[in-house]
């Protein structure tokens, strides 16, 4: 008799963005004339840059000719892209990676979800709180998260990131086998300094902890002192896997390309204490369950590293960061406590006294016709906050801010 | 302490295609002048058809404009493609699918590898033998395959498909929780009749067995009586998940798009005997660990269903099937026993008396400079066979056959 994986049944039925959509729809039914502006969803809005568009046209043309056609690519990705990553994303910051430490994927969501396959089912995990739901849910599905008791999972250690600790997570007071870190952070938009990140690397080396480091938003870092990669910290090659994405860097949310770094120095233990290298294990995982991402998407990603591509991508990021700056200035001017938004496309705002996340969300929707994301949807420590994203157009963002201004007065 | 998933360590180190490449390279070193023709690898060679190329250019252009840009698509795929599948691949054969039973993916390899996440880790599995390695390896990685004893996995039931049983697998003599079937078959190129497939559906319904049905090669079926989909059999909606791919249908091995059908009638049991629907579980899996395949690839797939697309795709399949016919005729003319090749792009050839798979492979390589795939690489029952693929160009295929002809005389 085929038995179901019952761990799936432990997952809560509510989806944050589905709940938001439901509430927005209810509002629309009663207010059919209202023109709603969403600053809620973490998706980009600006078109792909010309260098990327040209590269994709070229790749499509190749695929339509006998000489240029490419069938299966390497599961690890094409060397032309891996070399561009090596030379542009890491070498300039003093990080030397081998080509075969770089695995091209179809976006960071797949790999942050799949990476837990490499570790034993009963390893304990730690997450910063609030957190990107994929980290926890992918562990729930395999039974690693344990059971849910009062909103928290029994085998998950939550590391609160709140205004009171300046959004800097404290090292856990108990040993944790695997830690998920995401910087610049989704949802809080905050960053981590080299000194703080060094504490985590040292903790990991001391406790034989594995760090899964999500750097999907690294392109938004403006401050040259803030690390773009965990491998800027000595010793990280021995304890960390890092995830990158072109989704936010270059508007690739619909194009699907990113990459994962699994250093060759990285090991985990067997029950007998033998050290096993994770690089060949991930290679085996990808070779068995993945067939590479689209050739056209890989050529698109390569184009980001050309001089024109770099300049065009920087322009779009600058465009979004202008939104972030306007939002920060306006919201703070109105007396709201805001975080993030300086090295990330997210602004994390404390809700005013007397409002929880959902109450503020609904008030803003009905009062200003603006949609934000209730912070509690990202975890218990997100209660009392909402997230605004800088991914809108300038016009829509300005209009939203105007409305918030008149509504809040 | 981070502990490794030790199931990965049970995987054998040898990779079939890596072993082939090694032997071919050794030959090249000693025969630098030789012009080797590969009829070994299951990858297409003909360019994408014009309808697909045009659709991709249009999609790329859209993505470069403010109005046409698309960010995250639905994890389940765009409705335009799901509707095209529903109307073209199923309705004409009397199969009624709901849109949300169709999940677009980045190719059948991902989903045939990931689907086992839905079932309990200790379910037993059955595979036809020889077999596509992903079915077994993905189960090894989670511990479900058990341990390897003399080339076979302890928790896997092997169903031999050999000349003696006309490549029709027998129903297992013990209860098996999950069965993988692939028709037209990779590697044997054989097909299954409706009557034979009905036996499997009835077995599954009686034993509460789940069938994972891989139909990646369905477009090569010429005989109208051979089922293209397991859902042509009454009752299959209650026991089967089906995998499709555009890789072989339309040369999408580098484009990455396919789809999986999870019917709403399909359930598996909890330990308490409760029936759980698998459609929402797969939806949850995909929403958590996948972010949809490239918009451009989905538009490419949609173009296959236009009148021009259909005609062009059929032309390419006809081109490959001409190779298959020529190969069958020549090899049989030389006295070789051949199977498949009539409704599939693969020819499965018995090696002559006294040659095992690898011996024949080496003899063919050194004698005719032609590469085939040793059958034993697909499982114990593949010993004594080799696989030829029809995916070459006409010229290369003719040349290879000429060489085999003079070599074998």
Task: Summarize this structure briefly.
With 409 residues, chain A is an alpha/beta fold.
Annotation keywords:
four-stranded antiparallel β-sheet; alpha/beta; 36% helix; globular; 409 residues; seven-stranded mixed β-sheet
Polypeptide structure, described:
With 409 residues, chain A is an alpha/beta fold. In chain A, 36% of the residues lie in helices and 15% in strands. Chain A has helices at residues 16-30, 50-63, 79-90, 108-114, 133-140, 194-207, 247-250, 278-289, 295-303, 307-333, 357-368, 394-408, and strands spanning 37-38, 102-105, 125-129, 148-149, 152-153, 156-160, 178-182, 210-214, 240-245, 258-261, 267-269, 275-277, 338-340, 346-350, 370-371, 373-374, 385-389. The longest helix of chain A is centred in the last third of the chain and has 27 residues, at 307-333. Chain A starts with 15 loop residues before the first helix and ends with a helix. The model of chain A has no long low-confidence stretch (mean pLDDT 96). At the A-B interface, helix 2, helix 4, helix 5, helix 8 and helix 9 of A face helix 2, helix 4, helix 5, helix 8 and helix 9 of B.
